[in-house]
Specification:
Length: 576
Amino acid sequence: MPKPKGTANTKPLSQSATWEASSGLLENFARTAEAVGATTKKLEKAALVGAYLLELEDADLARAARYFAGHQFAMNDARTTNVGTSILREALSEATGLSVENLRPRYVRLGDSGEVAYEAMLETRKEVRAPAITLNQTEALIARLSEMKGTKNKKTLLTEVLASATALEAKYLVKMLVGDLRIGLKEGLVEDAVGRAFDQPLARVAQANMMLGDIGETAVRARHDDLAGIRMRLFHPLKFMLATAASDLADIARTMPEEFFVEDKFDGIRAQAHVSNDRLALYSRTMDEITHRFPELIAPLIELQTDAIIDGEIVPAREEVILPFSELQKRLGRKTVSEELLAATPVVFVAYDLLYGAGRVLIDEPLKERRRILEELIHAKGVVRLSEAKRMSGTLALDEEFDAARGRGNEGLMIKDPRSLYRPGRRGREWLKLKRALATLDVVVTSVEVGHGKRRHLLSDYTFAVRRSEEDPELLNVGKAYSGLTDAELLELTEWFRAHTVQEFAHGKVRIVEPKIVLEVTFDRVQESKRHKSGYALRFPRILRLRDDKTVAEIDTVETVRKLTKGGIEGMSDEG
């Protein structure tokens, strides 16, 4: 199928390139983004974006839609810029003449790299500059950064671009490169805006975007009324359907129909397998490709000899024996996995849902139908295996089933409505999870300190936070933990925290860091406290594990913490 008009019109950007206003200006995109961020009303946000998109030519329409959705490239494009905050900070320092030491407190005060760039530009820019950067040139810059090797070259290019930018252009260039506009605009709202702008039903826009893996192409197709007959493109991750924690058996009885599916809840890594006759890609819950970490899964999944998208779990296991998750952690974060590690920590892929198969998209089919087709696809009990989905009526046998699942080395149970459709990115009550009777929270590290004794050279003491609410991403501290990670993990994290320090005190012994490292912590109980801004503190918190399969947007909220003060003990993690 030919590309929409204009989508290939990306000129290469050289470091000496002259910014010519030949298409839609980045400044206009930025002004729209400012207006979107100034309102909390979703309908207003969608209307503002839609009105702006309507004015753009096809090529810029595709670019702007991607950028509003928070993507540097289309989801079906595996390129990345690999531009971190430290590179941006150094480039901004050189472009403005402000020292890095001068900029660091601003990151703490403003909490947004784009806002820091805007403030620094306004403060140091002596002459008024006319907006000149186009969306075409923005795309070329991002593409050039993805091709560049070495941080020095990337910093040089970014310094030149920022030095020539207006304050507002700089603000949104930085936001795009960080990967978060932070204007309260999710991809679903961009789909809504596209539908409104081009008089297309939201359901058709969302379906097309899911199948194409490119909100930019979807927007262009919507303009030309070309959303029908789109075939699924493999090898771009779809959002995962999420489960809700069941507080007790009565909660399950109230929610589920007379007959429901019961599966083990595996303690592994949620993964989505995209399979064709000659290729496999595995994607994590954070939409990152992780195929290289699990080379032993490639051949067995390709041997299925079909095009499919399978939802499942990568679980550490030796034949039928489930291994502790801590064994799997040894393989995470590694660029290459040695033969010794492959032998020491074998894994299996446990399939439990099918999103695409038998030549058709299945997410709008009931779970019982998706399972039927999946059971025809996977038979073996080897490296690729099918989860056992028991049909049960009533909750009387769930206690015994829970104990049996725990005895098999799994976390607990998943209870699923056979009628449930697959809702990408949604958390509903069609899937419930029943986990161990141990309170846990997913949190993000906000500051770190040097440890004591044998850990005096490591950043091993972590203060962590939860989100204010599902809608409000403000981070509020709830505790501090010292134990639970291995020395090897602490050494790796120490290097990461030093490279991602926002501000340091006491000669580097205490550091405020970028909030990117997600942990699962357990504790004895929650108590009200004035020590933390959240109003709560965890008593004797301990780190259970790193959750590099989760993003900061998925950590728990103050409301979850509040429930635990009332004695509610729930499993807090999503399936996977």
